[in-house]
Amino acid sequence: MLTRREFLKLCVSTAVTWTLTDVLFEELVKAATGPVKPKVIWLQASACTGNTLSFTNTVNPYLSRVLLDLVDLRYHPNLSGVMGDAAMRQIEEAIAKAPEYVVVVEGAIPTGLNGLFGTIGERNGKPVTMMQVVKEVGERAKAVVAIGVCATHGGPFAAYPNPTGCIGVSKLLKRPVINCPGCPCHPDWFVGTLSSLLLYGEPPDLDHINRPRVFYGQTVHDLCTRRSYFENGLYAKYPGDFGCMYQIGCKGPITYADCPRRKWNEYVNWPVEDNTPCIGCANPGFPDASSPFFAHLPSVKAPNLYVNANTLGVAAGAVTAAAIGAHAIGQIKSGRGFGGSHKDKPGDRKDGGQ
Amino acid sequence: MPQRIVVDPLTRVEGHMRVEVQVDGGKVTDAWVSSLLFRGVEIILQGRDPRDAVYLTQRICGFCPGSHAIASAYALWATNPVDVPKNGQLVRNMMLAADYLMDHLRHFYFLVFPDFVKLPEVAPFVPYGTDDFRLPAKENAVLVEHYLEALDQQRRADTMVAVFSGKSPHLHGVFPGGASQPPTADRVLRYQAHAAELLKFIETRMIPDMETIAKYYPDYFRIGKGLGRFLSFGLYQKSDRAEDRIFRPGRVVDGKVSFLTLEELSNGVTEAVDYSWYEQREPQKPHDERTVPQRPKGRAYSWAKAPRWNGEAYEHGPLARMWVMGEYQKGPSTMDRLTARVLETKKMAELALEWVKEIDPTGPHIARWEVPDSARGVGLVDAVRGGLGHWVTIEGYKIDRYQVITPTTWNGSPRDAKGQRGAIEEALLGAPIENPDRPVEIARVVHSFDPCNDCAVQVITPDERVRQFVI
User: Fold this and answer.
1) 0.95 exceeded by the pTM?
2) Which fold is adopted by the domain B3-470?
3) Longest dimension (CA), chain B
4) Which of A215, B104, B362, B430 is deepest in the core (most CB within 10 A)?
5) What are the tens digits of pLDDT across the range B108-121?
6) pLDDT tens figures, B116-156
7) Can you name the residues that pair with B3 across neighbouring β-strands?
8) Mutate: best of A48, A132, A149, partner B, most B CBs <10 A
9) What does the domain layout of chain A look like in residue ranges?
10) Are B124 and A165 within 8 A, CB to CB?
11) Minimal-distance CA residue of chain B relative to A345
């Protein structure tokens, strides 16, 4: 059995040289398939199913092994055989025996209309809201994992003006929730977190907003494969240009995720390598805190032209995080729209330099 | 004595769906299909930078983000046309074809298989949704093996998308002026390798699997007939002329095909809310729609609205496209819908491999596109489940209004003022119900449409009223 420390080391290096599958999976299966496989229930709230699909893209290990060998997935709205009342019975069972379950929640929780913007099924002929079910099963469950930025912090459907009153799961429940943000969440981030839970009974080390540090510990900017372009001032002027995406809106400096190192979909590509800016989809404030996606972060007034590029990078991160938090969101909330006056042409923002 | 059966949740669809049927003499005599999730993406889009729409509208649906990205890019392009390089069209089409492959494979194996094939006796496949499994043990075992293969093969399609889009689901890389990723040889080869593997899988697994299912469930060639009227917006644009598409836009009535222009299609669309949870009003055209949520509301039963073309309800999807193209003209029925989808999957893989040869690895792939001060644009494209329309109005370089009508709004539509049912409701009529406690027949008919309720419910609302309403 691997020590927890060795396990975390593997998680970091998964995409680089190792595969989690070869080294770890046999251990995981041994641990997981003791007398009983761990029970998991997957609930979908206000979602797009994108996190389910991203999860099915898992290659470390492959999906068939996760489903058949690793977990006892008692209910998943897209994979389960049952429907109607029989599906509700699976959910009711999870509520009754919540402490035995790991609950995965995909999607934000709509609280408007007392939850009626999203219902999950029926109980005695009455609709049951997503809000109700996530509360009933989540509050007493063994662990709750929020997958995707909707479930962690509200995400796109909680964006201004938040028409359905969407909130993240941790705001709904009075208990710790393990947050795996991203739009969608990378399959490794989720499967790695779940594996740790099953193997060691606890998630990987979490940061101040309960994200596993091993995946969300550094900024995209710090890990960026085009970092040297930033430092050498080779900036793309338009999506599709090769170079650093900073000037056309890259949110890498304020986004904590390991996309540049890990890459997506069998590790073939990632947004900056696609010649487009990072849109900060793993940020708690996504999308409002990072839109307009193609408008660059507010500028940093460098004391002189030859400022150390590293310093500029660090400063940009700190200053823009604060600026975006206070300034941009303030504008959005006051209904004044985004980035400057109503008639400003996108890309011509006067408040931004380079 | 008529009996009411409610299936809620109807699982293995995207989003949240409820179906209620009235059964008399063992057959469905009436049906009501409800979409149960409202998110208001179009409200969220108001006032934003138009360029963000390509990304934000994808969040409507994780199953077909590529289709939303393309529709949005077309709509924005129409507000300020530029010359899109040939590579740009090709790469966008290649992403869309891969999106189709991903979606069709997942639909057939994840969502449809459990209705017909007895999968391994482990969760999440058990408890089963039915006892009516008809495949002999030997054949069932073969299909189970294929299902398990499919679990690990389907990811290839998303990888094909990501080769050009950075990641999938939820793509980067699609722009009104083309595609941001240059189709370099290494990328094209990787795309090609996955496409070739998938084509092999489709030919040796998916199509034979479909034949096996059809062989043992022949009654479903008679169940789930539906409206018999089809509409397709076409797809795979080859040039900047919107009608220049490999799949042509058109409609089918009484088995006869007529081709349509995109303008005719767009101009004929209206949406009614008589049975939807929105404040009552007359049917409106997408560019002009103003709708306010209202639940409860008397006879309303769905968050989906009722889109109509020239006042009539239509069915959308692979059968519609294949019929218009003259490639599959049987049915309509539950099994014909499934068959058309499987055959289309093969066609998409073949097209993907065809385009690989047309790519010019050194040619331009994107044209610079700027947001206009004020303009209107329409982007129509057949998404995986059928016609998808994005209607955008730009004022002062910002989105003034954005309206999305998705295929499942058409297929899963509730009634309109005339009492006209939506396509799925109509298809349920006449379906035999063997066991009212486990009405698998309903699931089979509904799943043949591949409904996506994530997509079905989008609505635009004057924002001051929303605030008043929601909080």
Assistant:
1) no
2) Cytochrome-c3 Hydrogenase; chain B (1.10.645)
3) 71
4) A215
5) 999 999 999 999 99
6) 999 999 999 999 999 999 999 999 999 999 999 999 899 99
7) B23
8) A48
9) 4-216, 220-333
10) no
11) B397
